[in-house]
């Protein structure tokens, strides 16, 4: 395990920000931390970053207990804050030089790492420009570059794609996958469920200071739904076919919607093949077939009773 | 040293800040000079009209700008500051003087002002010398004028209109006071940099790196001190070689004392940042504190006029101690004799520093 968080407690006066939070992250994972505003994500990240102390529990980084201002663990961490944290009056290269030196990089190694980070984030051409003139997406990329130039073992990314265009978002998503492929473990928080779905291998849902569910995406989805919805678009629909589908034991509902059938059945009962068999016995052609799976958004809504963006 | 180096780079890259750091003290000091250079305005009403009174008037003309004033308007013109000094020479003054009798001269000045003191001083010296010549000439008119002319032409004890020493010191003190005030103002830049780092989240990121907050603060303060040193050195060079402000051979002492003061000033800027949430708030708090501190400390002028309780309160400002030290250095004391002043300035620096850093305990908040 690269990170183990056990029964973490954090209070701000009378407010319990973290209530016995526990989770663990294996090396090489992309770990999604999901939760609405005020759920405790930022506090958790601040504690993992060594910026905030905690009132109970323990945090192990590479098997070693860490506390506030633990310099050894800080060296192995890369932080991409939610807010863009750049000096607007320094060039992109100077920003990287500044943050690189804070991690002890100097001389040729620093120069090489700055070049590498600029190339990785596609900012080489703009290295001598100040972020003042950058687009939102470029600033976000530089924000990431500042966190990776010291090759950290663990990168914490707090909403790294907020407020940027789809092209830059795509670039960042590819970069995260590439970083992970190169060996970095990543903690990723986002409001964009589709991003978490796309890149995270494991997810923890945090609400009101507690982890209410965690596991792989499939684990979480299975928590909230035991049914699946199958939509079949046909050349023609007839009564015999509909009755045949309804007679399948695992099917609970079959609604005709023009030339489309919306079928609901128990998950894992080979519904699709059974439905296809019934349809093939009639004279209708299948034009399209979709199986709607529960999304993480639905998981979140079910578990917390509110939307992620609330 | 990354924080130190990059902070200096950022301060000097900002043109407005650079102008403020370098030119603001010069402009402020110039104000002190312009004020001091206002010509002394005098009027002489001569009812005697003799050769001797003509010579007296010629002497006074070299020290002041002469204005015409009617005798009945003296009080009104003095109140309206049309003139700073009026001398009325009575008829028969010269004869009285040669006879060895005093009197015959009436001086009018504004009681609360001392700007005309050099003229009074000149007049008194002149009257003493002329009285001595009259005695030596045995109170004979012809012999008196012959001796007086010889005295004017050749006498080693010639009257001079050079400004008196006190006036020079006052002028230097005022200009140096006008350097201390912008030093305090520019110290706010230190606070603004810290607030700016907090607001643009680079402080969060910096402290997420293996950097302790103490190291961060020390490097920030170090960079501001370096900037203050550059500012002070430049201002002192201009004072010495540009404005030619006399400093009674105490330039190095004053420089050293002001370096010490710059530490207190920078700490003051850091303290202001710790109680401000935004740059605007820091500027407002800074202005509201700097002006009273400067006035009470005597940077705008000596506090001789002030009641005792104000003088006591003024000792609770660092400006008082730096101005007190400057006063003593201008009066010929050496820097080594200013132990009390130095200790007090250091004490203020420590208090401000602790106040500015002790609150920064949880940077993530």
UniProtKB/TrEMBL annotation, chain A:
<dbReference type="Pfam" id="PF00005">
    <property type="entry name" value="ABC_tran"/>
</dbReference>
<dbReference type="InterPro" id="IPR003593">
    <property type="entry name" value="AAA+_ATPase"/>
</dbReference>
<dbReference type="InterPro" id="IPR027417">
    <property type="entry name" value="P-loop_NTPase"/>
</dbReference>
<keyword id="KW-0067">ATP-binding</keyword>
<dbReference type="InterPro" id="IPR003439">
    <property type="entry name" value="ABC_transporter-like_ATP-bd"/>
</dbReference>
<dbReference type="GO" id="GO:0005524">
    <property type="term" value="F:ATP binding"/>
</dbReference>
<dbReference type="GO" id="GO:0016887">
    <property type="term" value="F:ATP hydrolysis activity"/>
</dbReference>
<protein>
    <submittedName>
        <fullName>ABC-2 type transport system ATP-binding protein</fullName>
    </submittedName>
</protein>
<keyword id="KW-0547">Nucleotide-binding</keyword>
<feature type="domain" description="ABC transporter">
    <location>
        <begin position="3"/>
        <end position="233"/>
    </location>
</feature>
<dbReference type="InterPro" id="IPR017871">
    <property type="entry name" value="ABC_transporter-like_CS"/>
</dbReference>
From TrEMBL, chain B:
<feature type="transmembrane region" description="Helical">
    <location>
        <begin position="216"/>
        <end position="240"/>
    </location>
</feature>
<dbReference type="Pfam" id="PF12698">
    <property type="entry name" value="ABC2_membrane_3"/>
</dbReference>
<feature type="transmembrane region" description="Helical">
    <location>
        <begin position="175"/>
        <end position="195"/>
    </location>
</feature>
<protein>
    <submittedName>
        <fullName>ABC-2 type transport system permease protein</fullName>
    </submittedName>
</protein>
<keyword id="KW-0472">Membrane</keyword>
<dbReference type="InterPro" id="IPR013525">
    <property type="entry name" value="ABC2_TM"/>
</dbReference>
<feature type="domain" description="ABC-2 type transporter transmembrane">
    <location>
        <begin position="18"/>
        <end position="356"/>
    </location>
</feature>
<keyword id="KW-0812">Transmembrane</keyword>
<dbReference type="InterPro" id="IPR051449">
    <property type="entry name" value="ABC-2_transporter_component"/>
</dbReference>
<dbReference type="GO" id="GO:0005886">
    <property type="term" value="C:plasma membrane"/>
</dbReference>
<feature type="transmembrane region" description="Helical">
    <location>
        <begin position="342"/>
        <end position="358"/>
    </location>
</feature>
<feature type="transmembrane region" description="Helical">
    <location>
        <begin position="279"/>
        <end position="300"/>
    </location>
</feature>
<dbReference type="GO" id="GO:0140359">
    <property type="term" value="F:ABC-type transporter activity"/>
</dbReference>
<feature type="transmembrane region" description="Helical">
    <location>
        <begin position="252"/>
        <end position="272"/>
    </location>
</feature>
<keyword id="KW-1003">Cell membrane</keyword>
<keyword id="KW-1133">Transmembrane helix</keyword>
